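A note from the maintainers: we've had questions about how concatenated examples are separated. There is no special marker in the raw files; a new sequence line simply starts the next protein. For clarity in this README we add a label.
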Amino acid sequence: MGKKYEAAMKLVDKPAYSLPEAIPLLKKVAFAKFDETVEVAMRLGVDPKHADQMVRGTVVLPHGLGKSMRVIVIASGDKVREGREAGADEVGGDDLVQKIQGGWMDFDAVIATPDMMKSVGRLGKVLGPRGLMPNPKTGTVTVDVARAVREVKAGKVEFRVDKTGIIHCPVGKVSFDGEKLAENAHALISSVIKAKPATAKGRFVKSITLSSTMSPPITIDAGSVEAP
C-alpha cells in the first residue's frame, strides 16, 4: 500500500458519512494526478443467482459522466438515418456487426432495433462480458432510436448487480462541482432503491460506499439517502 493511499485513509476517520459530507472528503483524498472517476458501490440484500432477485436498470445522471459517450446504432431502413440525425457516432447494419466481429470496439454504448437482434446476437461473446449487449429492459433495443441515442449522450448509465450482490456504477469525475456529484450519486442510489425486487427480503441496501479510481472507499450512511 502506497504512502499517499495510507495518508488518504487516515482522513477517513468516521464509520459513516452523509452524502453531503462525503463529497468534499472524497475530493480531499483523491490524490492521483489525473481526473479520477467517482464510483458508487452498493451491497444489496439479494441473491442474484435467482432470476427474480436480479437488480438492473438505467438512470439518466442529471449532470452526465464528464465524458462524451460514443454511441453506435445497429439498425436497418429509415432507422439508420434516424440514428445519424440523433448524433450517433456510427450507424450501420450487418456491416457494423462484421466490423465489431473483426475486433473494432471504439464505442461506449450500443443501440439496436429489434429486427437487427438476430445479427446482434452473434456479438454476445464480445459485447456481453463488457456489459454492452443491447437489452430491451435498459432501452437499448428499441424502435425509438433517436430517443435512445439522446438519452445515452445525456448521461444515461446502466446498473446491474454482480454475482456477489454488489452494484458498481460511475457517477462522474473528481473535478465535478460537489453539488453536481452529490446529485448524480443521489439519482443513482434512488434508482437502485426503486428497482428493489418484490422477492427481496430483509434490509435491501446493506451498505453504500463512495470512492474514486485511486482513493480509499468512504462509507455512506444508507439511512441518509434512503428517505423517499
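[label: protein 2]
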Amino acid sequence: MDTFDSVLETIGRTPLIKLRAASAATGCEILGKAEFLNPGGSVKDRAALGMVREAEREGQLKPGGTIVEGTAGNTGIGLALVGNALGYRSIIVMPKTQSEEKIQTLRAYGAEVRLIPAVPYRNPEHFVHVSRRLAESMNASRPGSAFWANQFDNVANSRFHEETTGPEIWTQTDGRVDGFTCAMGTGGTLAGVGRALKQHNPAVRIALSDPGGSGLFGHYDRGEIAVEGSSITEGIGNSRITENMARAPIDTAFRIEDADAIPMVFRLLMEEGLCLGGSSGINVCGAIRLAADLGPGHTIVTILCDSGLRYGKRLFNPEFLIEKGLDVPDFLRRKD
C-alpha cells in the first residue's frame, strides 16, 4: 500500500470509470474521471491546492494567515481541507441558496461560513465581491493576514488542471482520447484540461456542457452571453467570462437541460452504482452529445464532480423534484 505524508498528496490521480450504458448507447467509450474520490469529495480540491500552493510561493499567504473565498461550496470545502492541513484558517462566503449539506460540511471542517443572499454578479453584494472586500479589510488592519483565493479569475486554478488533470487523462487513455467535455463555473477544469490535451493532440475536441440559467452556451454558440432557463445544479454556469474561461480552447458547446441531466443522475445511480451530483448529470449528457457528433469508435472523457449525497435534500426529495417540474424516479416513490 502507498503511504502518504499528508492528505494533500491524495488529491488527484483519480481513476477513469467506463460508463457502460452511455458507452453502449453511443458506440463510443465514455469515461468518467472520478473526481468525487478526492479527499474533500470533489474536483474542486485540485483548484484549492493549486491556488494555495501558488499563493504560498508568491508570498500572498503567510504562516498563520487566513484563506478567504466566495464559493458555491465545493471550492470552500477544498480550501478548508487544504488550509487545515497547512495551518491556515478559512472564511467562506456563500449564497444562502446552496445545499444544506455543503454548509454543514464546511462547518464540520472548521471553516467560518458567512451566508448571504444570492444576487447577480453585477450586484456589489454578490458573494465574490463580498469575499474580496472582506479580505481587503482584513489586510488593511493587518497586512498580509488574508489571502483572497478568487477562484474565478485566479489562473492558478486552470494552471493546476493543466499540470495534473489533463496529463492524467492523456496517460490513462494511452493518448487515445478524442474528446473532453464538462460544465464551467470558474472555467478552471475545462480550460486547464483542454489546454493540456490539445498540447498533445490539437485534434482533441473540447466541448462545453452548459446548464440552463447560464449565459455561457450563448457566448460560445453565437457570440453573446444570454441567460436562458434555470437549473437546480449548483456551482456551474456563469453570466460572465472569467479569466480562467478566457483561456479555454473550446471547439463546441451544448445546452443541457435539467429534464435530461437529472434523470441521468438517477440512471448513473441505478445502472452504474455511482451516486453523483447534478453537475455530473450535465457532464455525462454532454459526453453523449459529443459522442453523437464524433460518431462511434471514439473515446470521450468527462468529469464526475462530486457525490449526490451533497444534495440529498433536493435530488432525493420527491416534493422538491415535483416542484421543479422534474420526474421522480421509481425508487424514490417506493414505500419502505
